Amino acid sequence: MSFVDNLSRNIVGSSDAMMALRKSVMDVAEHNIPVLILGPSGSGKEVVAQSLADLSGRSGKLISVNCASIPKSLLEAELFGYEKGAFTGASKTHKGKFEQAHNGTLFLDEIGDMPADIQTRLLRVLADGEFYRVGGHTPIKVDVRVIAATHQNLEQLVEQKLFRNDLFHRLNVIRMHLPRLADRSEDIPQLARHFLQVSSKDLGVDQKILSDETAKLFTALPWQGNVRQLENTCRWLTVMAAGNEIQPSDLPPELLNPQQNVSDQSSTWEEQLRNWANIELSAGKNRILDSATPTFEKTMIEIALKHSHGRKRDAAILLGWGRNTLTRKMQELDMSPSRQQA
After folding, report:
1. In whole angstroms, what is the distance from residue 95 CA to residue 203 CA?
2. What does the pLDDT read at residue 282?
3. Which of 141, 181, 188, 297 could form a disulfide with 226 if both were Cys (CB 3.0 to 4.6 A apart)?
């Protein structure tokens, strides 16, 4: 299989976003420059890093480090290694991830969680191509291509003095962005069939088939966990679906329970609204704005009146309306004026 075919198998989808991503990977893979991959958790940043490494032509391996999963006290030794006797328990010399990735690629996932002192050491490696092991006095030269990824806004972290500005610019040579899965919903059926195929091979069972009805429902679901959630769902269905063809009734209850998603306190109101709309439309309902708009306006009016202690003039200011507009809206929505003040 050619590298191009392998790339298409790894970065799945025919949406404009995925076709542009594959082209970017092809264009920059062979160049020994840093790449910064941005995207929400579970969107497949590690798959892009692996594709870049596979196409790079470098003889070494891809070595991955999740900066958020390793305690701060251990991350320095994990990245740069340590000499025998450098600290209690260092009974022998240990090569860190940079040495392991020599002539290859080092993937630093969740770079936004890297502590400030280690950011400084990373900057020096990127600038000089050498570093010292913990407890060491001899510089170690390495030829490593660095790929970093994060779900955070690094520019914002720079403004907050939580991420070094010079390191950001050193990493931000080539930037690639992965969208939320819900923002490329046309790719979902193709991705689901891909994951069902992979799961059947991994588990040694017959491949399940996605029914048209289930594929349509998959496309409408919010997939807050993005590609990773879809992959795990397909793996679950490979084992748990009743028949050979996956029907909506086979899906795990938590995937179809709107209350579980809408009540998620960590999500924004835009995400909650998007979830509600997806659920309504997937249930075959029409004219959803006819029910949503009055409910939204009534809720906003009630909250504004509560914050203004029932004074309509102040509530109208909070809503960005004139007082007459507020009065008219309350009449249209059949809201009782008895407890409101002028």
Report:
1. 35
2. 60
3. 181
Torsion angle of C-alpha atoms 297, 303, 309, 315, degrees rounded to 10: -40
Q: How far apart are CA 197 and CA 7, in angstroms?
A: 17
Please name the residue that has the structure tokens 């900057």: 123
Q: How far apart are CA 170 and CA 53, in angstroms?
A: 19
Let me know: does 304 contact 321? Beta carbons within 8 Å.
no
CB atoms within 10 A of CB 34: 17
246: domain range? 183-282
Grade residue 308 by pLDDT with cuts at 50, 70 and 90: confident
CATH number at residue 235: 1.10.8.60
Distance CA 211, CA 247 (A): 6
- 129-180 residue pLDDT tens: 999 999 999 999 999 999 999 999 999 999 999 999 999 999 999 999 999 9
Q: For every residue of 177-220, which 3-state class applies, written as one string?
A: ECCCHHHHHHHHHHHHHHHHHHHHHHHCCCCCEECHHHHHHHHH
The whole-angstrom separation of Cα 104 and Cα 50 is: 11
Residue 341 lies in a domain: no
Chain-wide mean pLDDT for the chain? 88
Neighbouring residues of 20: CB distance < 8 A, sequence distance ≥ 6: none
